[in-house]
Amino acid sequence: MKTVLYCRVSVSEQTLDHQRTQAEAAGYKIDEVVADHGVSGVTTRLRDRPEGRRLFDLLRGGDVCLVRWVDRLGRDYQDVSDTLREFMRRGVIVKTIIHGMVFDGSVKDPMAQAVRDALIAFMSATAQAQAEATREAQRAGIAHAKARGDRYKGRKPSYSRVQYEAVRSMLDQGSGISAIAKSTGLSRQTVHRIQGDPAAAEMALASWNM
Fold first, then answer.
1. What range defines the domain where residue 48 resides?
2. Considering 94, 101, 125, 153, which has the largest number of Cβ atoms within 10 A of its Cβ?
3. Is residue 26 domain-shared with residue 52, that is, in the same domain?
4. Prediction pTM value
């Protein structure tokens, strides 16, 4: 049995070492890391990502699939829920670094299964809502940047797109500002700024093509 950490890395600022350090700081011993680079999590199914396909081939019954949050496992409600259920059917245990959630297909009690399935549905829906919010913010930011043409772009953001998405996701999950700052490597002031005006934060990224 092994523990496999799956990561999605969309920009160079978010390193695999940083994500692995977060997992190990949470008490996990990682046997292998599988990572997709430069792949959009809001448009590409897990099975359609190069390393996502390898993840399906790699995991066996009794293995642990570790992810930062369930939104790593798909692009929308259907994709995330299908992935979770497929892994559980195989006997794979899915764990999240954030909040330490565990999804185990070995549960036999009908009531416990119902609670687990309801939680999967809720978390998958939350992942899709976050993805849709991200897409909308991206569209708004791009449109705004194009409308401004070659005018002054303002100060370059002190955060990457991955950090921005991580902050938005953790805020949606109810994480505190201090915990988010520590997890993402950003200052509390930056987290507060993203929280206070996420559209403006997204526009800043778009203006700098980040």
1. 3-123
2. 94
3. yes
4. 0.62
